[in-house]
Amino acid sequence: MMLHIPGVLSRGDAERLRQAVDAAEWVDGRQTVGAQGARVKQNRQLPENDPNTRALGQGVLEAVRRSPLFMAAALPLRFSDPLFNRYESGETYGLHVDGSVRLASSGHVRTDLSCTLFLADPETYDGGELEVVDTYGVHEVKLPAGDAILYPSTSLHRVTPVTRGARVASFFWLQSLVRDDGARGLLFDMDKSIQALRAKHGDSEEAVALTGVYHNLLRRWAET
């Protein structure tokens, strides 16, 4: 399941975060990938273990935790430390799949879901589309600053070459309470239906019963 999550950051907060990362010291993005990824990766990133990167990343996590849509879809258990990347002047990241486990400051994180939070508006750069490949084809993503895309980490994906301007974003991975993407999608669909039912009829007998089914399924599938 791919999901566009609008307004994770307000326009003002996205601009302030963009200014902070623009002023930081960038390094070669190949420092954070293995040999296979290094052959197809051409970009820059903020240093992974730098205290400033960690501080900016905590702001990103606080923002996504405030998003009801993100929390309902991801059901997060553990987060990796958010990173920041920059593409310009033909820089790109070829087709690849993310590593299965990340070592974060909180410990090891199984990468069930990947998230990119865009910090540059689409009209400020050409190219730089995130292309995600799944059984339904190739999906291109290029979102306004402050919006995020959430997608399974098992997906092949790439960032197309940037030919004008700069594509700046934060990205991270998370381990979900529910490992299976299909089960997680069913729970998300049920949660949306429950919220719509409650908005229309309040906490009716049917809404309460369906909420019970949701939590019993989550209890069955959750890994802690």
Brief rundown of the structure:
By secondary structure, the protein is α+β, with helices and mostly antiparallel strands.
Fold blueprint:
Layout: E1 3-5, H1 11-22, E2 27-28, H2 35-38, E3 41-42, E4 44-45, H3 51-65, H4 68-74, E5 76-79, E6 83-88, E7 92-96, E8 101-104, E9 107-110, E10 113-118, E11 126-127, E12 130-134, E13 137-141, E14 148-152, E15 156-159, E16 162-164, E17 166-176, H5 181-201, H6 205-221
Antiparallel strand pairs: 1-14, 2-4, 3-7, 4-6, 5-17, 6-17, 7-15, 8-9, 10-14, 10-17, 11-16, 12-13, 12-15
Helix pairs in contact: 5-6
Number of extended strands: 17
Radius of gyration using CA atoms only? 18 Å
> Could you give the distance between the termini?
22 Å
The biggest sheet, with number of strands, parallel, antiparallel or mixed sense and barrel status, is:
8 strands, antiparallel
Strand content: 25-35%
Helix content: 25-40%
Q: Rough shape?
A: globular
Assembly level: single chain
Mean pLDDT over all positions: 96
The helix/strand class is: alpha+beta
Q: Which spans have pLDDT < 50 for at least 5 consecutive residues?
A: none
Number of helices: 6
How do the SSEs run, as a string of H and E? EHEHEEHHEEEEEEEEEEEEEHH
